[in-house]
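Async update (no meeting this week)

Hi team, since we skipped the sync, here's where things stand on the single-chain job. The sequence we agreed to prioritize is pasted below, unchanged from the tracker. I ran it this morning and attached the output directly underneath so nobody has to dig for it. Comments welcome in thread, and please keep replies under the output.
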Amino acid sequence: MDLAPTKSKSSSIIDCDFHQTLKSFEDLKPYLPRVWWPRLCAPEATLPITIFKPIPLSRRDASPGKGLPPGSDPQYAIEDALNRYNISKAVLTGSLLTVSAHNNPDYAAAIASAFNDYTLDHWIPTDDRFLASILVATQDPVLAAREIDRLGSHPKVVQVLLPVGSREPFGQRRFYPIYEAAVRNNLVVAIHGGGEGDGINPPISAVGQPTTNFERHNILAIHHMSQLNSIVCEGVFETFPTLKVIFIEGGLAWVPHLMWRMDKNFRGMRNEVPWLKKKPSEYIIEHCRFTTQPIEEPDNHELIQMLSMMRAEKTVLFATDYPHWDNDSPTFVLNKLPGELRRRIAYENAAELYELNHSHVEKEGVSR
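Output:
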């Protein structure tokens, strides 16, 4: 794949997982009620993290220098990633993905709201290629829905962002206000890895807390599987037939397995879910999308087989996960794919999902 700058749509790339972060939590103060300011500098009071990660989450070589965290300077990120790889659009997914693990729902909602405003003020104006997510705290779905309605009409906002870690599965009806608000604002719902085993959330694995981050990283997909299973089986897509859900940073190889198992069990146990009108796999292919990173790395013919099994020409989107240590560059992932599939995954699937060619560029201003 030729990564030299070009205006040809066939070589365009949409990055569906691009992490921006704060220089420090002090950056949130202008957007946060003063009552919460003391927590920004209190140890363990801001966002919970429970497992030691000996490899830093973000690459040191992605730091803009002067001691700043990687991903904290938009101008550096533009040169280091967007321009280097000819990325046409980058969907910002942030760095506060443990917000839904905090024990205080009001504080969590305030932090999410402040981070959204910070992103819209400090990142979105720097480059037309950046697109925004609305981060919400899922502890209180009513507050989350208010945040979606507050920012949902912004012309650069394309999705609602939920961390995958939660106390209850996302298919349950208490989360419906989030889906109602997303549909009302014509936004995708994105479920991104984060918050698993942290704070108020259940353990990382079904059998308790693992000893090492290596163990945790090997089973990242179980949370995405659990949320997808819940959303489909609880009939969310029957209740919200226009809703689209993207699963970010959970890998891909589990998707065919889960579709097969769900369809098999549906034949024998469908009386438990009479609201489902179609096979589970049909809802998944129609309503769900999955990002490449962290893609499994079998032999290339096996990779292509796996992608074929999950209808990747429709369901898979490209993501770098910049600037994390295990991020994937376009030269690594996309060069493994045949031409038509490469175009679909690199650009076209995401352009269709986010309606980039029409509706979102026609949105009018936002009240903040």
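Quick observations from my side:
The radius of gyration is 20 Å.
The longest strand covers residues 157-163.
Reply here if anything looks off.
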